[in-house]
Design brief:
By secondary structure, the chain is α+β, with helices and mostly antiparallel strands. The chain is 14% helix and 30% strand.
Length: 306
């Protein structure tokens, strides 16, 4: 099994812990105590990565964990080795993933639920996040890509989506449609961008999820008066996409549900994905805290996790 397009998964075997200097292999299948075939791979965390770490972070970002999980599924599920472009993904994050130790991504199927991949991200023997992924049915496959006109929207300011580099902004054309109803367009990254490399004419599911994260962050600032240095801590992602999103075609994200709290607090944001008709939906839960509260929270983490 070969590595993916810009691979995030280490080729190091995790079956029994190879001895120092052992030749690397590929993501490894092992049987656990429940006699399940579990595929495992170590996630490469490069704090200098121009997309995942385009500004300094004190933890592994959620979108890197999402991308690692999707890459592993793409490798072991027999769907061509690429991260999925259609399907349903749900991930709950239990704690911060720290920078000091590379996390392990795990994926497995069960006989009672064939076709659904159960996912877990583990660091230092502790679960950081867990969820599942299922590919869309044949009727919603790449044989039915979304078509339409290219987007002409200008990107929003990078700071409003917590990005430092303008090339990493995936949201533009932001507008208010009504009371607590908003829309934005999902923009194509520039040629040579990480998200474009090796994905062909359609977007990956991880790219859509980053667009949704950026839209949620933008809405916090524009619709809920979150301070410029407010911190959005992701609790969970749930996304379903029924048809592939073709690059160069207009894709609109609409917010159909916002938390009532302003400036800070916990809540859920709900979205629909439009490629003409509605072709997907998503929900993101999380907490918004002040910069001071965030720094206090991070100081309180266990010493072994620093």
């Amino acid at each position: 099994m070969t590595a993916l397009y810009p691979a995030l998964l280490s080729s190091e075997s995790l079956s029994s812990g190879p001895p120092p200097g052992a030749e690397p292999t590929h993501p490894t299948g092992v049987f656990d105590d429940d006699v399940r075939l579990v595929w495992e791979a170590r996630l490469t965390v490069d704090s200098g990565h121009p997309y995942f770490f385009d500004h300094p972070l004190d933890h592994v970002p959620a979108m890197l964990l999402v991308e690692g999980a999707l890459q592993l599924v793409g490798q072991v599920s027999g769907h061509g080795g690429r991260p999925p472009g259609v399907g349903s993904l749900g991930l709950d994050f239990h704690r911060f993933c720290e920078l000091e130790e590379a996390p392990v991504v795990r994926a497995w199927e069960t006989p009672r639920d064939p076709g659904r991949w159960h996912l877990e991200i583990v660091q230092g023997g502790t679960s950081v996040g867990a969820g599942s992924f299922a590919y869309a049915g044949r009727a919603a496959s790449a044989d039915h890509p979304v078509r339409g006109t290219p987007s002409a929207a200008a990107p929003v300011p990078a700071g409003l989506v917590h990005r430092a580099r303008s090339e990493n902004v995936l949201i533009g054309g932001f507008e208010q449609l009504g009371e607590d109803e908003y829309a934005a367009e999902l923009l194509d990254p520039p040629p040579g961008h990480y998200l474009v490399s090796g994905t062909g004419p359609t977007r990956s599911l991880g790219e859509l999820m980053e667009g949704l994260r950026q839209f949620a962050t933008l809405l916090g600032h524009e619709a809920r008066e979150v301070a410029a240095d407010g911190q959005f801590i992701v609790g969970s992602f749930d996304v379903r996409l029924d048809r592939p999103l073709r690059r160069g075609r207009r894709t609109v994200l609409r917010c159909c549900g916002l938390p009532t709290a302003r400036r800070r607090g916990a809540g859920v944001m709900r979205f629909t994905v439009h490629g003409g008709p509605i072709i997907g939906e998503a929900a993101i839960t999380g907490h918004v805290v002040s910069r001071r509260a965030y720094e206090h929270l991070r100081r309180m983490r266990p010493v072994g996790a620093r």
